[in-house]
Design goal:
It is a single chain. Helix 7 links the parallel strand 5 and strand 6. The strands form 3 sheets. The chain has a 6-stranded parallel β-sheet with strand order 1-11-8-7-5-6. It has a 3-stranded parallel β-sheet with strand order 3-2-4, sandwiched between helices. Helix content is 41%, strand content 15%. The N and C termini lie far apart (42 Å). It has 284 residues and is of the alpha/beta class. Bound molecules: NADPH dihydro-nicotinamide-adenine-dinucleotide phosphate and 5,10-Methenyltetrahydrofolate. NADPH dihydro-nicotinamide-adenine-dinucleotide phosphate binds next to helix 10.
Length: 284
């Protein structure tokens, strides 16, 4: 049976560390504040936002919500982004995605000051990551790297395969694995023989958004398997992209859903907000 990589426990430790950093800054008179932009009332987004704000409260980060109706104009959101960029009391902020309707997030993401970009999703942050400049890292990929590192999973020199190439997860994750000196392969929907490629992986990270798509036939004996996928089941539970029961017989370690990458994503948002506050204060 594969060892369980407990994201909930590691995330709790990171929240404690962040809480310590927040009180250090507070003692120097630097308050830490996260602003959240939410457009529309998509139930999943509303839940994510309220969870993130609860996390903030737990570690002593003040949070402010800027909620808009679904028909808000891009112009209005852009004006808010610019105001938050210039507001010295705001350590960092993010725009909850997806935006309602068919609104393109790119012009808004492009306007975010990279030193306040706690989601790490602006083209500037992505470009800085790609060329190896310091930047705030996207929360989910960074959470995966932190979870592996803190569970003692070696990456240097190892064969890593990522399934998925989104700007939110797969692409930045591939860059972070490279930075850890893994040998990285990225698969996507046009990959010809997925199982043939994923079976090479010593570390397999799955972020395809396809419920239960990865089974024992995709996994090398002894591999570490990270499941980023999240799907709501008929009975209201959560499940991932990996068929856990099946894969746990072949993998040496794996992340559960829930309790794996999801809590790490939220912890890294807090970490980034503290980091942004240090940057604003000239301490980082
Ligand atoms: N735990 C967490 O904190 C988070 C979880 N998620 C979850 O992770 C999953 C992925 O999210 P996200 O990256 O935003 O999703 P996207 O839909 O943006 O990207 C999915 C990627 O997977 C690839 N893909 C789809 N089907 C296959 C297939 N059959 N074989 C190989 N590759 C495939 C796509 O390829 P192509 O590019 O060719 O279309 C694409 O690159 C979702 O379930 C999402 O809910 C997301 C963010 C955070
Ligand atoms: N700009 C942007 N940034 C994101 O970070 C982002 C996004 N857009 N779009 C949607 C995805 C999804 N996502 C999750 C975060 C936490 C959990 C999480 O906490 N999951 C818990 C369970 C929570 C529950 O019970 O509902 C767990 O897996 O244990 C899940 C999913 C962030 N996303």
């Amino acid at each position: 049976m594969a060892r369980v990589l407990d994201g909930r426990a590691v995330a709790a430790r990171i929240r404690e560390e962040v809480a310590g950093g927040v009180s250090e800054l507070a003692a120097r008179g630097v308050p830490v504040r996260l602003d959240v932009i939410l457009a529309g009332e998509d139930p999943a987004s509303v839940t994510y936002v309220s969870n993130k704000r609860r996390d903030c409260a737990e570690v002593g980060i003040e949070s402010r919500l800027h909620a808009f109706p679904a028909d808000v104009s891009q112009k209005e959101l852009l004006a808010l982004v610019e105001r938050l960029n210039g507001d010295p009391e705001v350590s960092g902020f993010f725009i909850q995605l997806p935006l309602p309707g068919r609104m393109d997030p790119l012009p808004l993401l492009s306007a975010i000051d990279p030193s306040k970009d706690v989601d790490g999703l602006s083209p500037q942050s992505a470009g800085r990551l790609a060329v190896g400049l310091p930047c705030l890292l996207p929360c989910t990929p960074h959470g995966v790297i932190q979870l592996l590192g803190r569970c003692g999973v070696e990456l240097e020199g190892r064969e890593a395969v990522v399934v998925g190439r989104s700007n939110l997860v797969g692409k930045p994750l591939a860059l972070l694995l490279l930075r850890e000196n893994a040998t990285v392969t990225v698969c996507h929907s046009r990959t010809r023989d997925l199982a043939e490629v994923t079976r090479r992986a010593e570390v397999l990270v799955v972020a395809a958004g396809r419920r239960g798509m990865i089974g024992a036939e995709h996994v090398r004996e002894g591999a570490v398997v990270v499941d980023v996928g999240i799907h709501r089941t008929e009975d209201g539970g959560l499940t991932g992209d990996v068929r856990q029961e099946e894969v746990s017989g072949r993998a040496s370690a794996m992340t559960p859903v829930p309790g794996g990458v999801g809590p790490m994503t939220r912890a890294m948002l807090l970490y980034n907000t503290l980091e942004a506050a240090r940057l604003q204060a000239g301490l980082s």
